[in-house]
Write a structure and sequence with these properties.
Length: 480
């Protein structure tokens, strides 16, 4: 029986190798300056003559006026049909495109390995990129109070930050009983879901799934090394991250790959995964992949492939990254972490990442063809993975993997809202939904890269025009 993994064993078949070497090496930093400007008041807003991107139908509607009152979408109609109060903020939307705020379903706000301060420096970077919602993937029970404080400050207009739509607590357990206890502790602390890791032993995984079902708290995260991906989906694990176990499931020898891991120490397992991954990737079988995808669609498990992480691993430069104009937005301790992570990469790592990337694209295409809901997530702030900016990269990569622009937009808006049980309040530009919106200068259905053409962001019913967004960026680049 495996007992306790060493710190270095966080590899998912090499997927996170860029970050593994640096999680515990960076000293804590106290430089966590608040870069938010003074509170932004919530006023009535009228966005006039904008073309609405209807993410449900995948089409752009004729020009409409959208009236926002007290943070909610109060009315949508033809421009001449909407009565605009004299005191309203009027935003000219002619020639522009209005879509729901984007969601990053895999981010890390806490540094629970290195024990550095929280990643609140990321908040303005998300907002200026139109990311109005995020899912935090690795909290501890005591940190849920910090999440609640951030949420309250955003609601009061005291903090410009994305809504933390869900925060998960990681559960492993030193024993089956302690795993069950940790589920109960997470629920009592107010966690929104239980985060699963690849290294959770099979018996603990089954106990966590069972206890979470009793406690009525969702389970999401990695599929453990000893569990078939389809089995995890059928057992009720709501999402799978990074395509974990998807590579094995896309071969005709899935049972072979999983059985070979039984009874190994953590060191032996780490070495085995590294040594066998090239053969497993070469073992890709399109028919097996299609069967797996169909089963996932039937089970209803969503996938968060974090394609940008895979892409950056195989294409990211190990030199010259400090010249990126966004480098100044990182906190100083994050500079150190990225430098260490990038220095640890080798040419062999890059070659293997390229093979992994090629297979990943085939898997995502098969999942989408089968009707599996693909959700946008980035695993930010892994090295080269800039918060907010990487969400736009993820959208473009999804389109490369055969999703239409409309499907990619659903992956970042409607489908995250539905998965998190928030479909009544967000995920589309509709009356009665919260006013988290992005106004673009170009049509994202014509070219998904147009999601980067941001003219304004409405965050919780508060308008941030282009000058406001530029001011946030300027402040984010100071004092790091």
């Amino acid at each position: 029986m495996l007992t306790a993994p060493p710190q270095r064993l966080t590899r998912i078949h090499g997927l996170l190798s860029l970050a593994v070497a640096v999680l515990t090496l960076v000293p804590a930093s106290v430089n966590s300056a608040d870069v938010s400007p003074p509170p932004v008041p919530r006023r009535t807003i009228a966005i006039e003559n904008a073309q609405i991107v209807d993410v449900r139908s995948g089409r752009t509607l004729a020009p409409r006026t959208v009236l926002i009152v007290d943070g909610m979408i109060d009315a949508i109609g033809e421009p001449e049909s909407i009565a605009i109060p004299p005191s309203a903020q009027r935003v000219e939307g002619r020639g522009r495109f209005l879509l729901p705020g984007l969601v990053d379903m895999h981010v890390h706000l806490f540094n629970n390995s290195s024990r550095r301060p929280p990643n609140d420096w990321t908040f303005p970077l998300f907002v200026v990129n139109g990311v109005t919602g995020i899912r935090e993937m690795r909290s501890e029970p005591a940190q849920i109070a910090t999440v609640a404080d951030w949420r309250a400050k955003v609601s009061r207009g005291e903090l410009i930050a994305p809504h933390i739509l869900a925060a998960g607590v990681a559960v492993r357990g030193d024993s089956v009983e302690s795993a069950r206890r940790q589920v109960r502790e997470a629920q009592a602390a107010g966690a929104d879901f239980i985060k699963m890791f690849s290294t959770v032993p099979e018996a603990h995984w089954r106990a966590i799934i069972d206890e979470a079902r009793t406690a009525k708290i969702p389970v999401a995260g990695h599929t453990p090394y000893w569990i078939r991906l389809v089995e995890a989906a059928q057992a009720g694990q709501r999402t799978n991250e990074h395509l974990t176990q998807g590579f094995e499931a896309s071969t005709a020898r899935e049972a072979h790959w999983i059985a070979g891991r039984d009874g190994l120490t953590w060191e032996q397992l780490d070495a085995l995964l590294t040594a066998k991954e090239p053969e497993m990737l070469q073992d890709f079988d399109a028919a097996a992949c299609a069967r797996m995808a169909a089963a996932l669609a039937q089970a209803g498990q969503a996938q968060v492939p974090t394609l940008v992480l895979l892409h950056l691993e195989q294409a990211g430069a190990r030199e010259g990254f400090r010249e990126d104009p966004r480098w100044k937005y990182l906190r100083s301790d994050e500079h150190v972490r990225w430098e260490q992570g990038l220095a640890s990469r080798t040419a062999a790592d890059d070659e293997q990442s390229a093979r992994r990337w090629a297979v990943s694209r085939k898997i995502v295409a098969a999942m989408n063809a089968a009707g599996v809901h693909i959700l946008t997530g980035t695993d930010t702030p892994m090295p080269l993975n800039y918060p907010g900016y990487s969400l736009h990269q993820e959208l473009a990569l999804l389109v490369e993997c055969s999703l239409s622009p409309a499907e990619a937009l659903r992956a970042a808006t409607l489908w995250p809202a539905e998965l998190l049980g928030l479909g009544e309040s967000q995920g589309a530009v509709e009356v009665g939904k919260r006013a988290d919106l992005v106004l673009l200068s170009a049509d994202p259905l014509a070219d998904i890269r147009n999601t980067q053409q941001i003219h304004a962001v409405i965050l919780d019913g508060r308008l941030l025009n282009r000058a406001d967004l530029d001011g946030l960026l300027e402040a984010a680049g100071r004092g790091k």
